[in-house]
Amino acid sequence: MSLNVAMFVALIRASYPLGIPTTDYRALLALVRRRLSDDEIAALATDLMARGELKLDIDDFGAAITRISDKPPTAADLERVQRRLGGDWLAG
């Protein structure tokens, strides 16, 4: 796991100690896409799923990402998740 992915895993685990609610999936994906490659996102999701902190009920990760990202998050969702993760540095 790259340092970049490890940093996001730690940040998400600290921000969501009880796991990530499905209502935050779209906004979280949109935010991490600004900083991580597709391979890094896959590694991040794999780690979080293995820990039970990201609940995806389908076997094909690519299909899950497509389903989650098929509709953009609202501005309010982005703002809420960004605030929960701790800041404007994710906005870039």
SSE succession: HHHHH
Strand element count: 0
Structural class: mainly alpha
Largest sheet: none
CATH architecture: Orthogonal Bundle
Poorly predicted tracts of residues: none
**What's the CATH C level?**
Mainly Alpha
Gross geometry: globular
Spatial separation of the terminal alpha carbons:
23 Å
Task: Write down the domain tally.
Answer: 1
Fold-level CATH name: DNA polymerase, domain 1
Strand residue percentage:
under 5%
Count the helices. How many?
A: 5
Helix content: 55-70%
Computed Rg: 12 Å
What does this protein look like?
- The protein has 92 residues and is an all-alpha fold.
- The chain has one domain: DUF3349, helical bundle (DNA polymerase, domain 1, Orthogonal Bundle), CATH 1.10.150.
- It has five helices and no strands.
- It has helices at residues 3-15, 25-33, 38-50, 61-69, 75-85.
- It is globular and about 30 Å long.
- It starts with a helix and ends in a 7-residue tail after the last helix.
What's this entry about, in short?
This protein has helices at 3-15, 25-33, 38-50, 61-69, 75-85.
